[in-house]
Amino acid sequence: MLERKIPETRWAWVEIDRGALRRNFRAFRALTQPRERICCVIKADAYGHGAVECARVLASAGADMFAVATVDEGVVLRDAGVTLPILVLSEPPVSAIGTLLAHDIIPSVYTVEFALAYGECAVQAGTVGRYHLAIETGMNRIGVRCTEAVEFRESIDFHRGLCCDGVYTHFATADDPDGWDYKLQLRRFDEAVAAMRDAGLECGIVHCDNTPATIFDPASHHDMVRVGIGLYGLDPCPQAAARIELEPVMSVRARVTRTIMPAMGEGVGYGFTYRVPRTAVEICTLPLGYADGLSRTLSNRMEVLYRGERIRQVGNICMDQCMVAIHQTPLHQTPWAEHGDLMTIIGSDGDDRITMDEMAELRGTINYEVACGFGMRLEKIYL
Ligand SMILES: *Cc1c(COP(=O)(O)O)cnc(C)c1O
């Protein structure tokens, strides 16, 4: 803990364990057949973990493709030298087509207007526009209705500027693979693929599994799986932990920037939502707040780790800072903290660990959102 790498300009940061990311990728590799490809989902800056650095680790570990949510996320990867195929998981506006072609980024397609405009621009650029057809099988978010896939393909595939590189769908309830809803989506997808093949249409790479489907239903892997949350060592749902061993990749840490021992009865932070209940309470300031992903809804409800012990966060969490309290009692003498002492907001310290799931539960959300939040502003240190 002595020679810890920390940012020069701020005593709050995110640590990314590249070894853990690599091992999580290998755990998914072990779960898939050699002929099945792995598309690593690194949208939203790799769920807050830093897309460029994660892409490097995952490419060297053997990733076959990357998926992002926006065209700009794809451009960032290309500018950083990523050479693997990059798929955008929705259909961008027509105005994005020039950027897609210039950076060799593959869009999802589900409107005739976009597809034909894309094909035209590709011909003009002297190339062929590769696309993945998104199929609507029940989530009611994006895609061509499964019953209309053949008709849709026939209305665009005459275009010599277009090439179907893949066909996919996305599950709404893959964390319940025995459930009727999941099975219905999978059946509709398989039927749409079969109908296209019967009509003589090439489907390219056929894929539908997110992390939970990849883990729970190996029979549904098809040609490729799209793994996101699991790569970062986070379980998509509680039952997943029994099926695959994953290591958390992100930790969030801070150093104490200031300490004070207020008198009994004094308030702490905006609105004085906490008052010092007695003497012998030390208030320590940490330089991260809700603009760093530490949701204000956690105020007075969360804990951090200090020397392997849990201490309470107190007062309203501010935009850029928050306070924690050390209480000494005759029976329990947690040492007073000093300026510069390390505190752990997410991650392990000693024998204890605060997980993304613990914080998500307190916030009333899912680990996905907690991780994305910490990626917003905190500097990332890659271990
Ligand atoms: C985000 C996303 C994924 C990855 O989901 P995880 O649950 O993180 O594995 C896969 N496919 C699509 C279409 C997505 O939007």
Task: Report on the architecture of this protein.
The chain has 383 residues and is of the alpha/beta class. Helices cover 28% and strands 25% of the residues. It has helices at 18-31, 43-47, 51-61, 71-79, 97-102, 112-124, 149-156, 180-198, 211-216, 356-363, 367-374, and strands at residues 12-16, 37-41, 65-68, 86-88, 105-106, 108-109, 129-136, 144-145, 162-168, 205-209, 224-227, 250-255, 258-260, 267-268, 274-275, 281-286, 303-306, 309-314, 322-327, 342-349, 352-354, 379-382. The strands form 4 sheets. Strands 2, 3, 4, 5, 6, 7, 8, 9, 10 and 11 form a 10-stranded parallel β-sheet that branches. The radius of gyration is 24 Å and the shape is elongated.
What key attributes describe this structure?
383 residues; ten-stranded parallel β-sheet; five-stranded mixed β-sheet; 28% helix
Q: Tell me the total number of β-strands.
A: 22
Proportion of beta-strand residues = 25-35%
| Bound heterogens, unique | pyridoxal-5'-phosphate
Estimate the global geometry from the Cα principal axes.
elongated
Largest sheet: 10 strands, parallel
Over the alpha carbons, how many angstroms does the gyration radius reach? 24 Å
N-to-C terminal Cα separation, in Å? Answer: 13 Å
Question: Secondary-structure blueprint of this entry?
Answer:
Blueprint lengths: L11 E5 L1 H14 L5 E5 L1 H5 L3 H11 L3 E4 L2 H9 L6 E3 L8 H6 L2 E2 L1 E2 L2 H13 L4 E8 L7 E2 L3 H8 L5 E7 L11 H19 L6 E5 L1 H6 L7 E4 L22 E6 L2 E3 L6 E2 L5 E2 L5 E6 L16 E4 L2 E6 L7 E6 L14 E8 L2 E3 L1 H8 L3 H8 L4 E4 L1
Parallel strand pairs: 1-22, 2-3, 2-11, 3-4, 4-5, 6-7, 7-8, 7-9, 9-10, 10-11
Antiparallel strand pairs: 1-12, 12-20, 13-16, 14-15, 16-19, 17-18, 18-19, 20-21
Helix pairs in contact: 1-3, 10-11
Bound molecules: pyridoxal-5'-phosphate (PLP).
